[in-house]
Design brief:
The chain is of the alpha/beta class and 557 residues long. The chain folds into three domains: 276 residues, Metallo-beta-lactamase, Chain A; 148 residues, Rossmann fold (3-Layer(aba) Sandwich); 89 residues, Ubiquitin-like (UB roll) (Roll). Helices cover 32% and strands 24% of the residues. The chain has 17 helices and 27 strands. An eight-stranded mixed beta sheet has the order 8-7-6-3-2-1-21-22. The longest helix has 20 residues. 46% of the residues are buried. It binds zinc ion (2 copies). One zinc ion binds next to loops.
Length: 557
């Protein structure tokens, strides 16, 4: 294996950029700037596992290369409070141990992650609160927080000045003139930094393949007012828990419609609580506990719930399968998706829709009727940003291959030079050259340990998942004679009714394989094991046309 901690030589007089996660994928954002022997990190996010990572729900960037330079990391800057930007704090910070910087709302959400650290780490972690508009020195880096708009309170771009280079690192953003929660984006400051000159823009690519504009949260609120009017039964509305603006719009609408609001889903409760403390939910109605919904007429209920992507343990899935402890939806009720379908989640969403349909519950989708707007810049917004800042160079990040490519093309159309890179590509920003590779990858959380997602554990799990297993034990004397008949067990291989005969065939093959070995090999555990495995495999393939995982234990007495 090549050295995961290897770094190309860095010229201390040049500024470098390296995406460690999030470039070539949506999720687990982690970016790094290097200058003068110092390193500055931007964001530390997670992504979520899928059917290829059984038993692994949370995935973080693989930071083994960063561990080699950890003593020279001067700070970690968080752009905003989404999981794909700060969700890995509790898992990876203990390996980095650098000061963390964030604005107030983001810091409040980060604080909940930090609460999961052990007492020693909690004490050691210095969480510095900054304000949008503020510029501070972090080591050799001057970092200014610039307020943008997105789908969560306090999204910030970063103006990073170091050496003679100015970088605008956008974070996640859109142009929302009327974002419902918080101020609009700081266009005046963007124009100012444009006038001063911008060398590099490192930019969100999520919606670079979507034409037009993303649309404003206040437009989504207007569309919701139309869609939610005139229903008799309960209204259950699902949206992303962190979209505080949408939650606020729905709360205010509920009051107008004469409905009381209840919230199902822990993550939404937590976000609402954080937003209230930070002053983002003034005028939001008091919530009805879910357990009290039964006392209200159906026409007076509006239920906000998590789980728009069909996550099996979230509220909406439970409502669809009618297993929610506090609420039973019935014919005449309406379910509203104020969200979009994230690619990959089509099947679980379709399952919920079928369940609702069978129960006579109407479903209203958010894709086409304006009741959802995206939080990321579409083509016209990207053009606006590049035409406003007129950067010499653009690096597309935060996207899969097609998003990065589309964003690069938009930048070129606007007259910038686009540098197309992936996780692990180290760019010298002072010379505008990609100068080498740094090891990157993914770590999956299983139990309380982080394991490489390309490693043996997940390979074995996937094999077991698809092929089942055969386990056998051979108890031998020192010379290799059987002291008891071989014992075997099959798991996930054949139907119960066939198991006994398959096991007895396997036992015979094991005895036969042992007989076929010479006297010396019979004294060698490894030789016995491999002959036995081979016999099991050959039988399963030839007789059953299957390739189970074969595990043979040899005990010698
Ligand atoms: Zn993001
Ligand atoms: Zn975001």
């Amino acid at each position: 294996m090549h050295d995961v901690q290897h770094w190309p030589d860095l010229d201390p007089h040049n500024l470098y950029f390296l995406p460690v996660g999030g470039t070539g994928e949506i999720g687990m954002n982690l970016n790094l700037y290097a200058f003068g022997g110092q390193f500055l990190l931007v964001d530390l996010g997670v992504m979520f596992g899928d059917e290829t990572t059984p038993g692994v729900e949370v995935i973080t960037p693989d930071i083994r290369a960063l561990e080699a330079i950890k003593d020279r990391i001067v700070g970690l800057v968080l752009t905003h409070a989404h999981e794909d930007h700060l969700g890995a704090l509790q898992y990876l910070w203990p390996k980095l141990r650098c000061p963390v910087y964030a604005t107030s709302f983001t810091a409040r959400v980060a604080q909940r992650k930090i609460a999961n650290l052990n007492d020693k780490d909690k004490k050691a972690l210095k969480l510095n609160r900054v304000q949008a508009g503020q510029a501070i020195e972090i080591g050799l880096f001057r970092v200014e927080w610039l307020h943008l708009t997105h789908s969560i309170p306090e999204p910030n771009g970063l103006v990073i000045d170091v050496a003679d280079q100015r970088v605008f690192h956008t974070g996640d953003w859109k142009l929302d003139p009327s974002p419902v929660v918080g101020d609009s984006y700081d266009a005046a400051r963007l124009e100012e930094i444009a006038a001063e000159g911008v060398d590099w823009v490192v930019c969100d690519s999520t919606n670079a393949t979507s034409p037009g504009w993303s649309g404003s949260e206040s437009e989504a609120a207007k569309a919701l007012a139309q869609v939610l009017a005139g229903h008799e039964g309960r209204l259950a509305v699902s949206c992303f828990a962190s979209n505080v603006a949408r939650v606020k719009s729905l709360g205010l609408l509920a009051e107008q419609l004469g409905r009381r609001v209840s919230v199902l889903g822990r993550s939404m409760h937590e976000m609402i609580q954080a937003a209230k403390i930070e002053g983002y939910l003034a005028g939001f109605p008091n919530l009805v506990p879910a357990s009290d919904l039964g006392y209200l007429p159906r026409s007076e209920q509006l239920i906000l719930c998590t789980g728009s992507q069909g996550e099996p343990r979230a509220a909406l899935s439970k409502l669809a399968s009618d297993t929610h402890p506090d609420l039973h939806l019935e014919a005449g009720d309406t379910v509203v998706f104020s969200s979009k379908q994230i690619p990959g989640n089509e099947r679980p969403i379709a399952r919920m829709r079928n369940q609702f349909a069978v129960a006579g519950i109407q479903v209203i989708e958010g894709e086409s009727n304006g009741i959802h707007v995206s939080g990321h810049p579409c083509v016209e917004e990207l053009k606006w940003m590049y035409q406003t800042l007129m950067p010499t160079h653009v690096i597309p990040v935060h996207g899969e291959g097609r998003h990065l490519k589309a964003n690069a093309n938009i930048a070129r159309e606007c007259g910038s030079h686009a540098v197309e890179i992936r996780n692990g590509d180290l760019v010298n920003l002072s010379t505008a050259q990609t100068v080498g590779k740094v090891f990157t990858g993914r770590l999956g959380l299983t139990g309380n340990s982080l394991i490489p997602t390309t490693g043996a554990v997940l390979k074995d799990r996937n094999k077991l998942k698809y092929h089942g297993s055969v386990m056998a034990t051979l108890v031998l004397d020192q010379k290799g004679g059987l002291l008891a008949p071989p014992a075997a067990r099959v798991v996930g291989l054949v139907d119960k009714s066939q198991e006994a005969s398959v096991v007895s065939e396997i036992v015979q093959r094991l005895a036969g394989a042992l007989d076929a070995l010479g006297p010396l090999s019979r004294q060698d555990d490894a030789a016995v094991q491999s002959a036995a495995e081979e016999a099991v495999r050959r039988y399963c393939w030839r007789q059953l046309n299957q390739r189970p995982v074969a595990q043979i234990m040899v005990a010698r007495i």
